[in-house]
Specification:
The protein is α/β, with parallel strands linked by helices and about 375 residues long. It has 16 helices and eight strands. The model has no long low-confidence stretch (mean pLDDT about 95). Bound molecules: zinc ion. This is DUF2817 domain-containing protein. Pfam families: DUF2817.
């Protein structure tokens, strides 16, 4: 698998010109650059034979470094279409969104240039949410757990031993219970802008542009859309989980894949979660049905992934002028030493393992997921 945004993008776009159907390419640029000074963009392909009214929307790289698997899967599907082993039905079209967070992919982070997790940021009414969270007991409890663990999750300087921190995390698991602790680590906190898992206080440009693009690409008279947002990291290594945040998507996803692998996480449900699967569904502009799930392929135990995110964040925060450089506010920056740092390499390995076995089986799982979803869309009443 390619582990650079540019290589992923070139490969994906080159393949798209060989697809034997109607292919409409488009993109939007973000006001940021990569280490070579190139502007960063998100690309879209709209592929169909006739005039379908059912669409599969397949997005990658909402979390920057997770692009490497997501892009490989998108390209894998394109290859299957090109060699004829995958047939697109006449009544279904495919829309692929490549690199929702290109800044994170280019600079090897999960979050965007403002340290924001885009998958906690799709909130249509921020003032209302922030006001409500002030008195929400669940949010207040998660906030106090987050702050209690601050010494471990947001250390000011590099950590040389993860042994103590690993033990401390095990202690927090015991103290608060798995569910509450995990929620406090993942809920997209909105009070510490330099801390890990920050969800932001207003909607980021990546999501505004994405929303507009989806309105433009999917006709309003569409009968049905299924959105798959591709992720890696959570869950048992090499195993897939389908994360859903609303009842309609839960029912649809379970009828395609069975109930066993579907994870309905009520903690992130509805519009408060800020996930892009729920945000795009909430703001849909089509007359028909819309179901959505995140395809999550597990890579490593959660404490290991979490520590890799934290260690990279410490390194990033010590080099946060990279943000000014990529916003073109600064003319020089030592990109090489920033990107080659050990914490970056560990983070990439954590979200796109180099193991051939993992890569091969994960691509098969992803391809089966796409294949089954398209068959379901085509056959559904
Ligand atoms: Zn993710």
């Amino acid at each position: 698998m390619n582990r650079s945004l540019q290589k992923c993008r070139d490969f994906f776009l080159n393949l798209s010109s060989r697809v034997p159907h109607r292919v409409q390419k488009s993109n939007y640029e973000l006001p940021y650059i990569d280490f070579t000074g190139r502007p960063l963009s998100t690309d879209f392909l709209k592929i169909h034979k006739g005039s379908p009214k059912r669409w599969l929307l397949l997005t990658s790289g909402t979390h920057g470094v997770e692009l490497f698997y997501g892009s490989a899967l998108q390209s894998h599907v394109l290859k299957k279409i090109i060699d004829g082993s995958f047939q697109i039905p006449d009544n279904v079209g495919i829309i692929m969104g490549h690199a929702i967070n290109p800044w994170g992919a280019a600079w090897l982070r999960r979050v965007n240039v403002n340290n924001i997790d885009l998958n906690r940021n799709f909130i249509t009414d921020f003032p209302e949410l922030l006001e409500r969270q002030k008195t929400d007991p669940r949010y207040k409890e998660a906030k106090s757990i987050y702050l209690d663990t601050d010494e471990i999750i947001n250390p000011g300087s590099p950590r040389f031993s993860n042994l103590y921190d690993g033990a401390k995390i095990a202690y927090y698991f015991w103290k608060y219970g798995r569910e509450k602790f995990t929620y406090a680590m993942m809920f997209g906190q909105r009070f510490k802008s330099r801390g890990v898992q920050y969800g932001g206080k207003s909607m980021e440009i990546e999501l505004k542009l994405l929303q507009e693009k989806i309105y433009e690409l999917i006709p309003t008279d569409s009968e049905a859309v299924i959105h798959i947002d591709i992720h890696t990291g959570l869950g048992d290594p090499g195993q897939e989980t389908f994360i859903v945040t609303d009842e309609e998507s839960k029912t649809t996803t379970a009828s395609i894949f069975g109930e066993k692998r579907v994870d309905f996480n009520s903690l992130f449900s509805g519009k408060d979660g800020g996930l892009i699967i729920s945000g795009l569904k909430e703001t849909k502009r089509i007359d028909g049905k819309w179901a959505a799930f995140a395809l999550e392929i597990g890579t490593a135990p959660i404490n290991k992934t979490f520590l890799s995110i934290r260690d990279e964040a410490v390194w990033h925060n010590a080099n946060s002028i990279v943000e000014n450089f990529s916003k073109k506010e600064l003319s020089a920056f030592n990109s090489e030493s920033y990107l080659n740092h050990k914490t970056k390499q560990v983070l990439v390995e954590m979200f796109c393992p180099s193991s051939e076995e993992w890569q091969k089986s994960s691509l098969n799982i992803g391809y089966d997921t796409v294949n089954h979803t398209i068959k379901y869309l085509s056959a559904s009443k």
